[in-house]
Amino acid sequence: MPLILILAGFSAAAMFVPALHALLREDHTVSRAFAYSGVLGLLLIGAIAVAISNQEQRKNSDLSNLLSLFLAFAVLPIFLAIPFYEGLRTTSFLNAYFEMVSSFTTTGATIFDTPRRLPDSLHLWRGMVGWAGGLLIWVAALAVLAPLNLGGFEVTASAEPGQGEGRLDRFERAHTARRMASAARTLAPIYIGLTGLLWLMLTVGGDRPLVALIHAMSTLSTSGISAVGGVQNAGSGVGGEIVIFFFMFFALSRLTFSTDTITTARPGVWHDPEFRLGVGLVIGVPLLLFSRHWIGAWDDTLTEDLPAALKALWGGMFSVMSFLSTTGFESAYWPDAQAWSGLGTPGLILLGLALVGGGVATTAGGVKLLRVYALYLNGQREMERLVHPSSVARKGARSRRIRRQGAFVAWVFFMLFALTLAGLTVILAAFGVGFEEAIILSVAALSTTGPLTQVAGDAPIVLALLAPGAKLVLCAGMVLGRLELLAIIALLNPGLWRD
Prior knowledge:
64% of the residues lie in helices and 0% in strands. The protein is globular and about 70 Å long. It has helices at residues 3-14, 16-24, 28-52, 62-74, 76-88, 93-104, 120-145, 176-205, 209-221, 237-247, 273-295, 306-324, 334-341, 347-356, 369-387, 397-430, 435-446, 452-455, 468-483, 485-490, 494-498. The chain contains 21 helices and no strands. Helix 2 (16-24) packs antiparallel against helix 3 and helix 7 packs across helix 8.
């Protein structure tokens, strides 16, 4: 069966979970909306599966698999939005579609700024959709993007972007369904187990079970979805933030949960350049904000208060880790960190961290740490050549590959990312969005960090007031940010459409 049909079937089956939850809460309108959508969806998908079951199977194509993945993020949210729209009944279908695209791409931008406007069952559905989108990225990175050398795999691959290595082209790859099933069998238990463990720890810490579940799913998927407006409003307090902080490390490097993207000859996650660069940013940026209290704001009247200093330091560390992993949770002590540093526009720091992003083939978005590391190696090499024109590069085929082809492709991707950011900003401005708001919205969409719309500017951006065209543009930007522009360009291959 096509990948999009399999995903639609899982989506229809998942609708019975919020249906049962709403039934137990005696919210029969929401329960009927999900139950009817799930039943009708399974019947329609089953009919389509029977209709195409006797067709001759086409030759397996990696680009067709990529097309199915693109359709999953762009078209499947239409189906996901039906029960949301029917259950809420006080919003337009476009808003429901925007909400589902934002959740499924793990962006987490929401039109409903007041959490109490949505019933708990709809919050649960948003969290489940975001969680499923994160699992899909985990699995598809290995089964779909890796064979095409896309999604960050091109940085360490010796071939050109979108082309397989010669020695691997001698063999016929397994069918997509088999690769997806194999990757799911390996990664799904880890993903589910980590989510369950975090859910249990947050519940013990004082959160309501539903709030703890949504925050656990949002942390692992880096969607930043919350039923109470963020972890700063949760009952677990600082203890919950500490637990979530350590689970965010899984978004810094795929080597924290899998060994299919080894980027260094020495094993171990600490030798992974992505993980080390991410840890350096998580430690270095908060320390700079913390030290600015004495460097740039020495005339402040605040006394030397150790508890206030620790609160400011923790607020900076948690928020930096959250936005670097493109989760977007804000610490309860982030205002203390802002006041301590004395910065007038700390949102620019969060914008920059979200643009850098997390690890390759994780649920995090952004440019990705491995590409930043490849550009750093290339810059270091160019500086060595300036000082020593006859310098010899370090040995090791893997190191040379990252420095040459990897740096070149990383620079190409960075330029495409910048051009896409500029184009998206111009299009949003054409729909009447202010310049500053357009930049924040563009960065939030392309880096899949929706909470930036609430914390990056001087005032929160009310997404419900945007024009319908601007909402559709943001939906396209979120899909681009999730799949990355190199993958979209690969879909323009004439051979895919000639088939």
